[in-house]
Amino acid sequence: MSPASFPAPGTHPENFRYSVYNILEPVPEELRGRYDLVHVRLLVAALGKGDVDTAVRNLVLLLRPGGWIQWEDLDSYTWAGRVPSSHVKEMHALMRSHMEARGMEEHIPSAFVAAATAHQDLQNVSARAFNTLEGGTQHRDAFNKAFLWSCARSSKMILRARGEENVEAEATRLDEGARRDIERDGIFWDSDEHVLLAQRR
């Protein structure tokens, strides 16, 4: 994240302000106890083991009493692990091995529940998984497109980080192969998105 990613001025209400904050760093004094709701989304490929504890402690400091944390995320095991495509399975294995090698948190939902339940200032901790298949086939194309994009992009970044040769060709092989598998076999991406909640006392 950087300010370069912010929308152009004039495209949002005047009382709306963008800023950058690292969830693993101490909370600036001016942000403490200011918010009724803090929403966190998709840190599945960003946090190391133990980082969820730090994140939860910092998120609590942002909240007013009675305020809520709402965290939406994926579990690395179900991100792409149930998709019956050999190319998607290759991408998923690549991501999992990368996360394991770097000591990343592969189970953010369960790590959040454990950290939030143990925190003395939090209550009403809950987790709910929403499966992509639940919404019916009218959402199939949108889910397939979004999840394949995330897997293909992550795989390409991992290949590049490993210093692999022919990154572009390998990334294209995986992406195009997965697209063919999905179209040929009528695949509906089977994954879970977890909604995690906790309220400050």
UniProtKB/TrEMBL annotation:
The record's listing under InterPro entries reads: SAM-dependent_MTases_sf
SUPFAM superfamilies listed in its UniProt record: S-adenosyl-L-methionine-dependent methyltransferases (SSF53335)
- The protein's name: Methyltransferase domain-containing protein
Which species expresses this protein natively? Aspergillus lucknowensis
- Organism lineage string: Eukaryota, Fungi, Dikarya, Ascomycota, Pezizomycotina
